[in-house]
């Protein structure tokens, strides 16, 4: 969905000028992120999302409707032709680095040392390496060497 459409039809923005705040307004609640995570992992049907997350039907219905309205998911007719399924849009697929970063933060900070957890692996079965944002010159970026530049 184009940005202008979100500007006109989006929620009341927490902080209208902040991309982080707008993103959180759209996809930042627990259930939305878990639905997006499961869509990235191949979930397509309402039943599958519900089974994987344990989410209540009414909340799942609300999140799927919201994610579809904001262009993160789209509905398509399943190959069986009997029902519709949910698929990630380009905007939804663009959230992969966000989910990956949340996952990697969780691996470092949400588990005790040695505590078992799921792993994200590539198509060859190798664990995905930690992501580090870098500058145009290849310097690792942190909160200490970046700043927000206001456009107004």
TrEMBL record:
Residues 133-152 are annotated as: Disordered. Residues 143-152 have a biased composition (Polar residues). Keywords: DNA-binding, Transcription, Transcription regulation. This is Helix-turn-helix transcriptional regulator. PANTHER family: TRANSCRIPTIONAL REGULATOR, MARR FAMILY, TRANSCRIPTIONAL REGULATORY PROTEIN. Residues 18-114 form the HTH hxlR-type domain. GO terms for molecular function: DNA binding. The keyword DNA-binding applies. Gene3D superfamilies: Winged helix-like DNA-binding domain superfamily/Winged helix DNA-binding domain. Signal peptide: none annotated.
């Amino acid at each position: 969905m184009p940005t202008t459409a979100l500007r006109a039809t989006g929620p009341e923005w927490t902080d209208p000028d902040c991309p982080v705040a707008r993103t959180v307004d759209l996809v930042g609640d627990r259930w939305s992120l878990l639905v997006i995570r499961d869509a990235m992992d191949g979930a397509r049907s309402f039943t599958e999302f519900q089974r994987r997350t344990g989410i209540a039907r009414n909340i799942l219905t609300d999140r799927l409707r919201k994610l579809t309205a904001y262009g993160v998911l789209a509905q398509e007719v399943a190959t069986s032709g009997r029902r519709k399924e949910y698929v990630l849009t380009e905007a939804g697929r663009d959230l992969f680095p966000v989910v990956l970063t949340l996952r990697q933060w969780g691996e470092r900070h949400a588990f005790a040392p040695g505590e078992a957890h799921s792993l994200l692996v590539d198509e060859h079965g190798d664990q995905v390496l930690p992501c580090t944002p870098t500058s145009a010159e290849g310097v690792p970026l942190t909160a200490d060497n970046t700043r927000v530049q206001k456009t107004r």
